[in-house]
Please model this.
Amino acid sequence: MSVKINPRELETSRLSKADDAGMVFFWKGGVFRAIRHDARGQIEALFSSGLIGELVAANLFPESRITDYSLEGFSLVVEHKKIEPTTYPYEWTFSMLQDAAITVLKVNLIANKYGYQTKDCHGFNVLFDGAQPKFVDLGSLVALERKTAGWKAYEEFMSVYYYPLWIWSRGDDYIARRLFFGGEKLPHYSYLLYRYPYLRIINTDLLKRAAKYRYLLNKVSAVAQSHVEATLPRSLAGSAMRLRETGLLPTHLRSVTSLLKRTKRFSKRPSKVQWADYQGALQTVDRRPLSTPRFDRIIEIINRYKVRSVTDLAGNQGVFSRLLLDRTTVKKVICIDYDENAVDTLYKLIRETAIPITPVLQNFVFPFITRHSEVLEQRFKSEAVVALAITHHLLLGQNLDIEHVLKIISAFSSRYVFIEFMPMGLYNGRFAPPVPAWYSLVWFRNALQNEIQILLEEQLEDNRILFVGELKKQRATNSYKSGQRVAS
Model:
């Protein structure tokens, strides 16, 4: 018996605004895709062809099934295995971007065997399930016009993946990452000007036209003959069709196979940044995490509260994150840091070992966000947030307001907050710059009490005082349920 979904109970995905096959929505903790009436045949054919099954088996697509649910205005409802938390392309490292690009190409190679291809391939079509990127846009898989057709998404792949990877591989991570901000694609002529500076002597309009006609060849081989004839002048359309019939134009399989080889060859130029090897000394030669008496004590306290999930802010290469998984009740960790080298090192380790850590390349105080993405605190919230050896950098190094900093940190938690105060300020182990008169333990404690109910205050080292607390709203709820009244 079909189950009717109440539209008032579902939440539409922020990113499902331009899907001609249907819409993605969340309902009762699951992820679903409602299929429009005119796309029903396309989706049913995809599942019956065996393509979806092979993509799932290859770990390139989330487990999916056609359900017996119904939603008014739509013909089918497909359920996908939920992947969380969601990280967006501007939160990926170089290796993550490269692996996402390889996934898109592998999906197309498999799809080609069944007579399909992806019609688009923007970065938001890929989600990381741990360290495994998966293509998630079911509606993007469309039938090839013919076996020798070009790849419809070829031009977009170059702008979204290939160009940023090339720029990043040359050492410019700043520009490469910002190409994802706002969802815009790098124009071909801009890439050419970046890669070949001598082209700047050429008239820009001429370069734009040259780049346009270069990719027009692929479009001619990718679209239907009727579209070519309707778009180009008759003489040019005839020439284009003759070229296509001879097999001289780029084809889907040839383009994808070539791109896969080139994409795999990309490697990032080594760079040395301030915090890249901050945790290098806390790992063995085979990269196992090493603990310290300070970490041992924090782990002991976390076990006391039986925490199941943690967001580790400024977690660098994830040494403490890995210790949590090895020695506590914690089952999932989100590790956030703005140092790309450190996060990339963590990602490659996760990729090899499959440990349940989600790596996120973000500045949690001043993050990259777009209007279509949820704020960091919503996507990366855990039962407990851990902020070790970071507040002094924010308060003294960046002169941020303490109330602002503590509100941001606490927002990543649904219950517990573990946060350190450094009484000696920016002490680096050898000397300590003078701290302002207002920077004191009492000042920090009073500000923290506005956000949490302090459960524990303990000095772990000369310059490390740990505070453990519970969000006031959460503590009040717990006390109410137990029949106790707690003053806040």
